[in-house]
Amino acid sequence: MPGIAELPTLSTREGIVYAVIETPRGSRAKFKYEPELGLFTLHKALSLGFSYPYAFGFIANTKAEDGDPLDVLLVTTLDTPTGCIVEARLIGVIEIEQRDDGHGPIVRNDRLIAVPALEHDDRQPQTLEAMPSREVDDIEAFFIASAERDGKEVKIIGRRGAEHALELVGKAQIKPEEAGQVAAEIDMIKGKIAKTAAKAGPKSDEPEPQR
Questions:
Q1: What mean pLDDT do residues 110-126 have?
Q2: Looking only at Cα atoms, what is the longest distance across the chain?
Q3: pTM for this one?
């Protein structure tokens, strides 16, 4: 039976990625997928009073600058347990710089933001900008607090839209045989996003400065 290692990045549905859920919404325990085991393990416990605001996981078959798969936060109140595979639509990215020990190199550890690709749910945010600003502020505060507890220095450097999130997915491909297909589909999706944005009026995808 094919496992997570064989899961493609993109679904057969246009513009949809596969998100692998590691930690459910509301959990104080952080779980992590271990490729060598093919299983999920308990990675750490958050401080008392802290829990994940939404389900957290990664985009299948990607590798980010920090050496791990691209992180993704799935904005939904639906129950998505550890190991759940979700067809997800990217709506943006929170850009983050991180230094692990206070003296090491600064690396990017961006968090993609996505929603489940449900055909009949118009209550979901369609873009990161459509989410309440206070809610996004709280999500950023959660990422900072949980990282600082582990002795890491973290800085939020901006917020970007779905187009940039797709670019990150394209750059993070780890299967050469899929890279060309992914790049072509991402270019097509970006073109559609640009057309939609043009109809809606001029809007920049430049990073939104931290508040």
A1: 84
A2: 49
A3: 0.86
